[in-house]
Amino acid sequence: MTELGLYSFLVHDNIFDVDQDTLLENLNYLYTLKNPETFQYILTLNSDKLDNKESKSRLPFDVHDYARVTFTKSDRFIKGNKYSEI
Questions:
Q1: Radius of gyration of the chain measured on its C-alpha atoms
Q2: 52/2 Cα distance (integer angstroms)
Q3: CA angle 42, 15, 72 (to 5 degrees)
Q4: What 3-state DSSP class applies to 20?
Q5: What's the pTM value of the predicted model, to 2 decimals?
Q6: Rounded to whole angstroms, how far apart are CA atoms 86 and 83?
Q7: ∠ CA 19-67-31 to the nearest 5 degrees?
Q8: In this model, does residue 67 exceed pLDDT 70?
Q9: Are 41 and 67 in contact (CB under 8 A)?
Q10: Cβ-contact 9, 40 below 8 angstroms
């Protein structure tokens, strides 16, 4: 059995949609962690949440530098026609 050691894993799937201030404060907190290699945080987030003047002025980093995968309507996560948008 593999020991997890210092590694933590948290998935946030945006079930609890928070206000803009809380979102920016949380992202800034994660950005300032001293040992980011010991912590993994996965966040699903619509790009429009951060495509505004306030976000760009309050975040000291570019969130796109930390994106591991990006999906769009033309490049979907779920392939095929198994679902439809409402």
A1: 16
A2: 43
A3: 65
A4: helix
A5: 0.64
A6: 10
A7: 60
A8: yes
A9: no
A10: yes
Name the nearest CA neighbour of 51 among 64, 41, 66.
64
- Alpha helices (runs of H) in 1-86, residue ranges in sequence order: 20-31, 53-58
pLDDT one-digit tens code per residue, 14-45: 655 788 888 899 889 888 887 767 777 777 78
Interatomic CA distance for residues 38 and 6, integer angstroms: 6
pLDDT score, position 33? 82
Q: Of all residues in the chain, what percent carry a pLDDT higher than 90? A: 7
Between the CA of residue 46 and those of 31, 34, 82, what are the distances in Å?
19, 27, 21
Q: What is 18-83 written as a DSSP string? A: PPHHHHHHHHHHHHT-S-GGGEEEEE---GGGT-SHHHHHH-SS-GGGG-S----SSS-SS-SSS-
Amino acid letter, 7: Y
Residue 13's φ and ψ, nearest 5 degrees, are -105, 20
Q: Phi/psi of residue 38, each to 5°?
A: -100, 5
